[in-house]
């Protein structure tokens, strides 16, 4: 065997060893089933106190994303995208202001908000918290979603497994640059997220 042939054989052997090391990790990642969010049953609702009296409520009508969930392995990965111009308070004048004002959602400049998470706290096979990062108006901050309920089961309509639940969280809107009407409209915003995801 020439020196060149020996070098080629050594490279091939190293490549095979590397592939053998990577394959098990890839197999582990592939084990978690994938779920796609059902846009007709997945919404982000929000609440903020107005003038210390009543609570203004609304939701974002359009969102999309995917979930990887393995109850036995206690794994829950989440990726959600929210269209900010789909904000809906039920008051058209307010919705126009929310979308257009530079100190509110500014949807033209920031058309989407994101939540991504790869860490969850489980009790048995049920997730109780999802810890991740929320990006709004281009600003990213840690955010924890607390599970109010979570359940998986066969959906007779889709004839597939569906997992879903309700979650809550709280943000300080000023830390994302949403400063309009502070302090007359509260800084703290409560988020209520309803999620249903269909196994793919």
Characteristic terms for this protein:
single chain; 200 residues; Lipocalin; 2 domains; eight-stranded antiparallel barrel; 2 helices; elongated
Strand order of the largest sheet: 1-4-5-7-8-9-10-11
CATH class of the largest domain: Mainly Beta
Roughly what fraction of the amino acids lie in strands? over 45%
The termini sit apart by 51 Å
- Along the chain, the helix and strand elements come as HEEEEEEHEEEEE
Regions with little confidence, pLDDT below 50 for 5+ residues: 2-29
Rg over CA atoms? 22 Å
CATH topology of the largest domain: Lipocalin
Query: How would you describe the shape?
Result: elongated
CATH architecture of the largest domain: Beta Barrel
Number of domains: 2
CATH superfamily of the largest domain: Lipid/polyisoprenoid-binding, YceI-like
What is the strand tally? 11
Describe what you observe in this structure.
The protein is of the alpha+beta class. The protein has 2 domains: 1-31; 32-199, Lipocalin (Beta Barrel). Helices cover 19% and strands 52% of the residues. The protein contains 2 helices and 11 strands. It has helices spanning 3-31, 92-100; strands spanning 34-37, 43-50, 54-60, 63-70, 75-83, 87-88, 112-123, 126-136, 139-155, 160-172, 188-199. It has an 8-stranded antiparallel barrel with strand order 1-4-5-7-8-9-10-11. The protein is elongated and about 45 Å long. Residues 2-29 have low confidence and may be disordered.
């Amino acid at each position: 065997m020439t020196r060149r042939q020996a070098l080629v054989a050594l490279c091939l052997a190293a490549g095979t060893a590397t592939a053998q090391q990577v394959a098990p990790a890839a197999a582990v990642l592939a084990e978690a089933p994938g779920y796609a969010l059902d846009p007709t049953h997945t919404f982000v609702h929000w609440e903020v106190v107005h003038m210390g009296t009543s609570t203004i409520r609304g939701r974002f009508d359009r969102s999309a994303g995917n979930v990887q969930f393995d109850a036995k392995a206690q794994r829950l990965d989440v990726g959600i995208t929210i269209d900010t111009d789909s904000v809906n308070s039920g008051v058209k004048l307010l919705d126009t202001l929310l979308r257009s004002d530079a100190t509110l959602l500014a949807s033209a400049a920031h058309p989407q908000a994101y939540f991504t998470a790869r860490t969850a706290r489980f009790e048995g096979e049920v997730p109780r918290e999802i810890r991740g990062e929320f990006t709004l108006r281009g600003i990213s901050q840690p955010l924890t979603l607390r599970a109010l309920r979570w359940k998986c089961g066969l959906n007779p309509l889709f004839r597939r497994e569906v997992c879903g639940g309700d979650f809550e969280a709280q943000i300080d809107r000023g830390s994302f640059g949403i400063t309009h009407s502070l302090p007359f409209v509260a800084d703290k915003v409560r988020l209520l997220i309803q999620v249903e995801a269909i196994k793919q």
